[in-house]
Amino acid sequence: MKMNFNNYAYFPILRTRQAELNGLYHLSDDAKDKILPIITLGKWRNTDGVDKALGKVEECLGSRNFILDLSKEIQHQNESISNLMLPDSIFKNWLEFIEKNKSVVPVVQFAPTATRRNVVQQAVAIEKLGRTPVFRVRINQNELDSTLASLYALNAPEKALIIIDAGYIREVSTKLIKAGVLQTILNTINTIVQEVPETLRVLAGTSYPRSVTQYRNDDSETSGRISMLEHILYDSIGPDIVRYGDHASIHSVVYDDEGGTYLPKLDVPSDHYWYFERRPGTKSEGYKDAAETLLKNHPSLKTNTCWGAEMVRNTAAGNGKTINSPIAAISVRVNLHIDYQLEFLEAANAMPPKEDNGDEESWI
Fold it and tell me: In whole angstroms, what is the distance from residue 193 CA to residue 196 CA?
């Protein structure tokens, strides 16, 4: 199975968490056809293997392909995931898993104990299986060097994909893109373009914060907005150089076992911001009031046909299925976000061209 990554508009990064996958599940078929999700496989609650988590992804996407990575975060791993990352015998466990799961577009694993030679051999082995290797590069020189070495060894590097994952890009104190992040990304992309200009590139990051408290409007405990720095980052590089990816309105590090009280909060994407309504001191009834305010302030929600908008309308009216928990609220946010990003890309004329044979080497 060879992939043509040029056929996709948007590359959202999601984890195998109930809230995120539920938002993905409820996308329209048209939206699902336009995206190629990058799924980070982690443990599913109350299970030891990976079949349940993988099955949930397939429930969301049907027969569609998806890029699959393995979680590097210890708190999201179980023994099965750790075993898939073992570099023994040229990542034997991972390769057997890939061969068995035909809808998976595999990410080349940079395992902590793997040598560069291990990584290169793994990429070559994936290609020999008739599959298309994907490289997810954090802002890390070692990963970049291993990616380039692997691409040099492939028979068809032009068929591969590089995802440059910048992680969390917001500086907490200034609320802007972190100092040095843009230049580091530029340097990384410049190196890739010079060495393997034929390989398609995706730039992904997230600016959704772990807490929205400091983004409240002046003199408001309940309302605020958060700028989507992902758009600024993407515009700074340009759609002729990279395709658009992000973390689908989720912070880059998630702690599912955190304690604390979760107050009702809903988010709506619009005009390159996330607008939020939170209701301190309330329980599930706070979602209704938040939904009513969002509908009043964002009239487009009344005619938006996506599932997330429908859930906001239902919650405001108190009819049908409503939002009454943090998990449901996150699902709605993810669903609205992906739908909005597709509209943003279409409006920016950034939908992928059918063919692009131009020379990209002189962009920087």
Answer: 5
